[in-house]
Amino acid sequence: MERLLTLPDSATAPLSIRAKALVFHDPASLHLLQSVERIACSEATVLVVGETGTGKELIARHIHQVSGRKGPFVAVNCGAFSESLIDAELFGHETGAFTGASQARAGWFEAANGGTLFLDEIGDLPLALQVKLLRVLQERQVVRLGSRRGIPLDVRLVAATNIDLARAVEAQHFRADLFYRLSVASVRLPPLRERPADILPLARHFIGVYRSRLNRKEVQLSEAAQAALLSYHWSGNIRELENVIHFALIVCRDDLIRPEDIKLIPLTAQAHPAPDGKLVVGGLGSNATPNPAPRPISTRDSLSDQATHEGSTHLVQLTEVLNALLAHGEADLFNKVESAVVHAAFAFAGQNQVRSAKVLGITRNMLRTQLKRHGLLDSPDEETSSEGTEAQAVSF
């Protein structure tokens, strides 16, 4: 049995930052879907955890549909608003609540009343608003900015994140009480590389979508192209697969997609945990036709092994340095090491906040806190300048 989930506008919408289709063909995927549908029938708050591009919003929409709620499904990206605006956006405001508030406006919680509110990138929510969100969840009512009157709510909350919230709690960047409130029912959406049986059905789905848009006849995947798709690491998950298939349909000849039509360009050689707990390294890819697993050691393997070995060596060296500093009785060691890491990452990323946060594996708001703490954002002008650089990087 195979199941397909798509966004309502997936057949006509242009490429976006969202994954627009989920196929459940792999046995592990089908088991996950069954668990999701059981959770959907309850009223429990849901936390969906998964890498970027895995289809977290699709899962949230499916939970809403299965739940039988009559109200709307409202999706909000917590990282898309500045800290000064997100309060009013989520909870609404009254006339005169702040400069420019010329009329009262309902927030996203009120807009989703009777339905489901999907809060994506919940880890980007500032600490001050985490307190307010926790109160809304506990009291089932929202208070607009500039008001003292609570407005009753009937909203199912589904939150999503691509970071480890437990680690964020340990680092005091996310409230523990909110974490436990959100994760009443937790869903881990596995990356595409952990459900290989879904790759080809997804590819065929995207071939069908873009074939009709490009007025192409039936297009097939060659066996070599299928092997290339199956052996690739898919660090961008479903979103990356969609882009790859779209490009392949543009350049392929004779209605057949060959390996040379598939543009596979991994960003970095990154280590990822496999389901059995072993370390899997994302290699430096090429457009050459890979052999199905198991396959002989190739240049790609040796480069990946070298990257893993070098990373392990550096960590060993770092541990030795830390042991020496501890033995020496270095004062205020934690703050000094933290400061060194933040300074190094910020310099490495060219003082770009988005890239610095990605390098460190934390959210942008968490990074800003660290930059201010360690004197890298001393003035409002400096922060504004850095944010401008971020906006340019994102738009590019």
Characterization of this structure:
The chain is an alpha/beta fold and 396 residues long. Among the domains are: 41-190, P-loop containing nucleotide triphosphate hydrolases (Rossmann fold, 3-Layer(aba) Sandwich); 304-395, Arc Repressor Mutant, subunit A (Orthogonal Bundle), CATH 1.10.10. The protein has helices at residues 27-40, 56-67, 83-91, 108-111, 127-139, 165-170, 176-182, 199-213, 223-231, 237-251, 299-328, 333-348, 353-360, 364-373, 380-395, and strands at 3-6, 21-24, 46-49, 73-77, 116-120, 141-143, 150-152, 156-161, 185-188, 220-221, 256-257, 271-273, 279-281. It has a 5-stranded parallel sheet. A two-stranded antiparallel sheet has the order 1-2. α8 crosses α10 (237-251), α12 (333-348) packs across α13 and α13 (353-360) packs across α14 (364-373).
